[in-house]
Structures are given as C-alpha cells and as structure tokens.
Predict the 3D structure of the following.
Amino acid sequence: MKNYDVVVIGSGPAGYVAAIRASQLGLKTLCIEKWVNQDGKHVNGGTCLNVGCIPSKSLLDSSQKYWEVTKDIGIHGISVKNVNFDVSKMHERKKKIVNQLTGGVSSLLKANGVECAFGHGKLHSSRRVTITDENGAETEVTANNVILAAGSKPIEIPVAEVDNDLILDSTGALEIDSVPKRLGIIGAGVIGLELGSVWGRLGSEVVLLEALEDFLAIMDKQIAEEAKRIFMKQGLDIRLGARVIGTEIKDKQVVVTYRNGEVIQKEVFDKLIVCVGRRPHTENLLAQDSGIEVDERGSVFVNEYCATNVPGVYAIGDLVRGPMLAHKGSEEGIMVAERIAGHKAQLNYDIVPNVIYTHPEVASVGRTEEQIKASGDPYNIGTFPFAASGRALASNDSDGFVKIIAHAETDRILGCHIVGPSAADLTQQVAIAMEFGSSAEDLGMTVFGHPTLSEAVHEAALSVSGSAIHMPNKKKR
Ligand code: FAD
Ligand code: AMP
C-alpha cells in the first residue's frame, strides 16, 4: 500500500492550495478529487472554479456590460442602436474561462509535483484513505497527514425542491439558457443578490424573498441599508420578512407561497432559484471508524489551526466553521501545509474580506459598527461618499460610500465597510493596512494617487478625526 506524507481530499481552492504548498515544502502529496464536469471530464478546482466564484463573475461581467450600454452609455454622449445579447455566447465565454482555470489548476498541481487521483476519497481509522473510481474500483493508501477539503453543497429546502427545470439551485442558475420573464429567488444573501443581478440586468423582473427582517444581516447596518436602496433603484424587488412556505408547478410556472407576518401571499414565476445558503459536504467522506467529530451544523470540528480531534487529520475551507469563502479556505490550506512541515503558521481570522459582486460591490473587512458597539470598545467613524469623488463622478459611478471605524483611544482601524465602485479592491487596501496594525491616522498620512477611487478611502480615514478635506466634517478636530 502506498504511503504519503500528505493526502488531500478535495481540490477546491482550499484543497489544491494546501496540496501545492505541501509539495513545495518537500512533502510527498496526493490530492483526490471526484468532480466530473458537464463534458464528462475529471476536473480540479471545486465549487469555486466550476460552479461558484468564477462562472458567476463571468456572467456578472457580461451582464454588466449590457446594462452599461443600454442604461448608462447615453450620459457619455454615446448613442448605440440595436443592442442585442446572446445568452449562449455568454455561457460559451464563461465555459472557456472555467476550462482555462480548471486546466490551469491541474497544471499547477503537476508542476509542483502533486500526485492527482480522480475518485471518491473516504477517510478511515489510522489515516487510511480509500479512493473509489467511477467504475467502483477501490484503491487504498495511507498518510502521515490527511487534509479534508471536501467543501460544501447548496442547502435544499423541502418547500422548494430543485427539479433542475423550473426550480434551480445556484449551479442551475448559472446555466439558464434564456432570460426568464419573471424570476423568483429564495434568499437575498450574497449568492441570491449576485444571480439576481445577472438576470435582472438582462431583463428579468427579479423578486427576492428573504425570510429575515434585516437585509444582509451580517453586514454593517448602514452599508446594508444603502446597498438595499441602490439595488431597489436598479429594479431588484427585495421583500424582507418573506418566508417561503410552499411551491407548486402550474402550467410550466412556479407558484410560490410565502408568509409575511400574518399574511400569506402568492407569486408566480417562470423560474425560481433557491439560494438559502450552503452546507458542509461530509456525505460518505468519513468512515464510521474515522473518529472525526462533526459539530451540530455538520461542519468538521477543528481548532484555530484547523486540526480535527484526530491527530494528523486536518480540515479546511467550507467544510469547517467560519465564512464560506474561497480565500479563507486557501489561506487555511497554506497554514495547515506549513504547520505539517513544522512551520509556525497561523491565520488572522479577524481580517478576512467579504465581498458581494453586485454593481456597485459591497465589501467589508473587520468588525461592523454593531459588533464593535456590542463589544463595548469606544470607537470613531469616518465616512466619505463616492458622490464627492472626482474619479467616481468622471466614471458616472458615484453611488455609495466608504466607512472606516477606528478605536477611539488607540485609533487602530477595527473595520472598513464599503458599498460603491470597486469596493472589493478598495477594501483590500484597508485589509493590508489593518494587517500591519495601521491607525486611521496612518492611512490618512499615506499619499493616494489622484484621481482614484481609493481617494475615498483616504478621505474616510481622515474623516475619522474630523480632518477630511473634500467634504464638510461633522466632527470638529
Ligand atoms: P469546494 O470548492 O466546494 O471544493 C471541494 C472539492 O472537494 C470539490 O471539488 C468536490 O468535488 C471535492 N470532494 C468532495 N467530497 C469529495 C470526496 N469524498 N472525494 C473526493 N473529492 C471530494 N467565494 C468567494 O470567496 N468569492 C466569491 O465570489 C464566491 N462566489 C460564489 C458564487 C457561487 C455561485 C457559489 C456557489 C459560491 C461562491 N463562493 C465564493 C464560495 C466559494 O466557491 C467556496 O467558499 C469555495 O469554493 C470553498 O472552497 P473549498 O475548497 O472548501 O470547497
Ligand atoms: P446566504 O447564507 O448569504 O447564502 O443567504 C441565504 C439567505 O436565505 C438567508 O438570508 C436566509 O435567511 C434566507 N432563507 C432561508 N430559508 C428561507 C425561506 N424559506 N424563505 C426565504 N428566505 C430564506
């Protein structure tokens, strides 16, 4: 039986990154993956590359181009006639990007000396791993260390069973072949808003039914309120406190019943997308004798270094606690591989950026105002609207604002929340500053190029102490 230093189960952004780093550090590494794509090919890359981050961003960008040409271009003095789009070409483009990137991951694994096995991996006792291929043939290997990186799957709800025709999950929603006239989405979370934006820009009437009363409950409240205002202005019909309690197919349409307080309401849609979150993918991953503990949410239980309760077995990415984000899993993969190799790696979970790739984007890093207030820490806030940014106005993209929160005594930045153009990249600048323990004053003393969107970050940092230049300060210095 072959023995490896490291066996990784799953080649999503958590698993493939862990495997590459382990191999880079001289560890004999095997990465097991079971994904078969639409063309029947074995591919690496997991949810992120195949049916997640990348295909969704491809469609978001294609639909945004159409939106800009049809809705916004006139303001630049440009008129365009007979603008059309072809959904099948958008899908072709998306597929090409996905194939390029999944192929790229396989090449990277190979170039770094990682051995790849295609099949279903299962962990048994004593770090034995079985690999079952599509014909049912089983191979067994042993490992000094196992990294579980099996990712997550869409949550299914009995009131809206996915039929892959009229009722879809996020994977099906990335393959819709013609624009539905009326599109219903259950769950106004990150994925629901992104997919709603894609089809809304292409002409669907989009209704998002969200059970919670609060919009984007995990985001900073002030930012979430502004985002909701902007999305509603764009035409997304976001209904809060709307819990879906039933669906029925009638005349090739979906009749959705939802409860809003005491009131029961119905809506008819041409397609319905279920986006109520994702759950850890542990099916048939852990043999009974593996001894691995799973928590009440189905996540593999791990400590801050991603070690499970079984020595030599680690778990990373969507399979474990924390936000289900590709970059969080990748960083966990690097940390675990380095710790296996004897390094003292750790991950700063307090500084993990979170982004919604709508237009404008919504992005955050660090704690929200609500979390800081609840902790009792004294704080100051600085904000700056994109409406006062020369660059945002020049681009006709001036919705939203930057909000920076700093500790009132130390001035250390505790959080940055942005709704606005390029919010993801701007937030990343503040994440870097936070990682280096920056104060708002440090950021305020940094020279920012002009005219850039990042000047809004600079001004928000200055505004923490009432020193903004390009808007009146509420607070006096
Ligand atoms: P996965 O990517 O799910 O990979 C796990 C892999 O393990 C899969 O390939 C699976 O086939 C394999 N596997 C599972 N069980 C076994 C087994 N027993 N044997 C062998 N192989 C197995 N995150 C972001 O950060 N930014 C975004 O913009 C973003 N957009 C998203 C958009 C959509 C529509 C969706 C659905 C998700 C999005 N996400 C985004 C979330 C992101 O995709 C996940 O957080 C990320 O893919 C998790 O990485 P992972 O490696 O833990 O798991
Ligand atoms: P996210 O976790 O960001 O993908 O968001 C999923 C959203 O779906 C959450 O905000 C949930 O409140 C919402 N949700 C879950 N079940 C239902 C339901 N039956 N009806 C409406 N919304 C729901």
